[in-house]
Records
---
Amino acid sequence: MFNLEGKSALVTGATGGIGEAIARALHAQGATVTLSGTREAKLEALASDLGDRVHIKAANLSDRESVDALVPAAEEMMGGLDILVNNAGITRDNIFMRMKDEEWDQVLEVNLSATFRICRAAIKGMMKRRQGRIIGITSVVGVTGNAGQVNYSAAKAGMIGMSKSLAQEVASRKITVNTIAPGFISTAMTDELNEKQRESILGNVPAGRLGTADEIAGAAVYLASDEAAYVTGQTLHVNGGMAMI
Amino acid sequence: MSNVAEQVKKIVVEHLGVEADKVVESASFIDDLGADSLDTVELVMAFEEAFGVEIPDDAAETIQSVGDAVKFIESKQG
Ligand SMILES: NC(=O)c1ccc[n+]([C@@H]2O[C@H](COP(=O)([O-])OP(=O)(O)OC[C@H]3O[C@@H](n4cnc5c(N)ncnc54)[C@H](OP(=O)(O)O)[C@@H]3O)[C@@H](O)[C@H]2O)c1
């Protein structure tokens, strides 16, 4: 089950907590992976740790040229692209009344517009090969909303809507498009929380703890696998029960 | 029929699974041959591959029929 030997995968945000775990998990199931992010030294370190079946391609997702170059590079290095994981993401939190245009634009650009452009570049090859898995890492707050994150939750909700529409367009070509919505996962992103924020969050998580990046990676492996061929347009919530949707 | 027309016809028959005698120059992919919009995108990709030409998106949108495709490809091969 969940064997990914012979499959090629591209993971954006592979230098981050969740992206690294996803890249490691896909690789462990046998996939060839291309790691992307902006920090080249981190990409190289991860690649050398994984050993064979690994490529790297740095890309700044707030730069459109760099975004458009990513998929062609990955396809060339791996000879195709079967699994695309749009995981890179940023937050620029502020209360709505103080939200600046730049904060809105940056978050929408990296989290949503780059995802759109990367999917568009990848879909052509997937249509030709009559197979493909597109996985977007959204967030529980894309569904529930969250005070202080109008930009982030709009972008994450946008990913969900985009995935559902794309899923309908390409389902007949054996391509699935799904999202994973993590709750609070222990990574650099959540390390920024102070003790009080952490306690109030955990008060709303029935599981009583933060999730781990590996628990997101497991969901990604499943959605990437042949076993998940009949699952499309879905959002898989991995959140310790904090929202049951 | 030109060589290009022959080959275009063959690709359309294979891709859309329609009978060869329906694939005449005036046949519209969508109205006459039962293609959906995704099929037309795939046909364009197949033409690009078979003829080694690049068909930009704005040109692809004007290719609605077998004849349109033949004309476009012949103009590119000049
Ligand atoms: N942690 C959570 O609790 C949580 C919850 C829900 C959803 N998520 C989502 O999960 C995903 C991964 O988050 P994480 O927790 O692993 O965060 P992280 O450790 O901060 O990682 C973020 C990743 O995104 C990449 N990235 C950011 N801006 C970029 C840009 N302009 N161009 C290219 N890459 C860029 C970073 O690459 P570089 O550092 O190399 O620039 C990094 O690899 C995000 O989409 C996040 O929204 C996380």
---
Amino acid sequence: MPSGDDPATASDGTLRAHIDPELCVGSGICLATAPRHFEPTMDARSRARPDAPPADDRAQDAAALCPMEAIHFVRAREPTPRTAPPEARS
Amino acid sequence: MTDTDPGPTTGFPLPHRDGLGPLPEFTALRRDAPCARIRLPSGDPAWLVTRYADVRTVLGDPRFSRTRATRGTGPRMASVPTLPDSILAADPPEHTRLRKLIAPAFTARRAQAMRRDMARLVSGLLDALTAHDRPADLVPLFTRPLPLAVICDLLGTPRQDGDRLDAWCDTLRNLTAAPDAAVTAAVDEMTGYLAALVAAKRRHPADDVVSTLIAAHDDGERLTQEELISFCLVLLVGGYGTTADRLAGMVHLLLDEPGRYRRLCRAPDTIPRAAEELLRYAQTNVQANLRVATEDVELGGVTIAEGEAVMAVNSSANHDETVFEDPGRLDLDRAHNPHLSFGYGVHHCVGAQIARVQLQEALAGLVHRLPDLRAAAPPRWKTGLKTRAPRTLPVTW
Ligand code: HEM
Ligand code: SF4
């Protein structure tokens, strides 16, 4: 089955950020630059928030600042929910 | 007003101790008062934050602002303003605009591409060192000239101004050693020096970071002249002084217990991991750049009120017992090592990848060429600075 997160098979949809956990060194630059899009993981790295809004300029900025070039964008099939959790700020 | 009792004011700055081992004051604060009241050299109060999770919050959470600690009125480290136009004083989105200008030159990929050149620089310095009389001082012969050459080449500035840059860098990182007037004078002199350099570069642009910044300034509104000069200044101070001090400290820690150095000689492929542990272990920073809370924040059992200053010390976080197993042990094999020596959040060191490659190549060169390297006498230490580092490193081989 094609998956919404697979850039090869995704159809039209919103862009979503994705962090390659193999490349991320946990600098925290992305989550501090675009707090609504990224969050820390338990192992001191960062990842895209599961409830992130569609990628916007802030998310693109974070990708441009990542020293490991670990942030990529994929087309999601389903638009992600717009509501961020209460602790999310941007 | 808050209903939490901040307790008595903790002495600050901490009493100076030679060496880079864990400071007992930080250990006690992490245990008893993770957010402690201090008084800054300016006379303003601040919170000293020492636990890993709290330090990461202060550095990574947008509710803590560098801009409010450097511009306008509010609590200050010292009475002299320090570089209000620099990247280190900016908050997003302004910070993002500035950092995007240089980010492409500082990726891990670019740093790896510089590895060969750095190895060549190391090799040249070691040629000169091995021709030198023994004992020799590694600071002027190796730990200082290497980062100076690397940053000058990267920025596109002349290497021969090292001694002047060195004195300025120390004054800028001064905590108690120099009077405020000396700090202001150093900033003025360095600003003049850089303005002349920028003018020269403008006439002869090249493929370097200063030329990139000049182009951003000249192309339009992407960078003001003040931002341009401050940018160069922060890159020089960060890229040169910090790296030189760190490298000297690392070599000292390795030679202090000769088994450590011998281990790297036997297994040079473990140098990258060892370098990370040396970065973690060395409590180089005895203070940190201030942040100011933009709203009330609960942290470490206290309420930090809007407008209050916070100093989050990465070298204490790096010894947090809840994150690092047996943190007081320098374990060159340490596997889980999410240290904060390069900071965290938007201001995470832009030069971290370059510093890493440089430190790795420096250590690799030393163990390869000088397997018998040893301390000839104890180092003398810098005092009164925001960071601790050897002033001299007498060695023989
Ligand atoms: C081992 C060497 C180094 C260490 C330990 C180090 C450490 C740090 C730390 C802790 C910060 C964050 C400060 C804060 O958040 O208050 C920082 C920022 C910075 N560092 Fe480094 N640094 C090193 C080498 C370098 C090098 C080689 C360069 C330049 C080539 C550099 C340039 C900078 C700049 C420009 C910033 C400010 C970044 C920003 O505000 O976005 N550093 N560094
Ligand atoms: S900026 Fe890059 S390396 Fe840093 S935490 Fe984000 S994804 Fe990881």
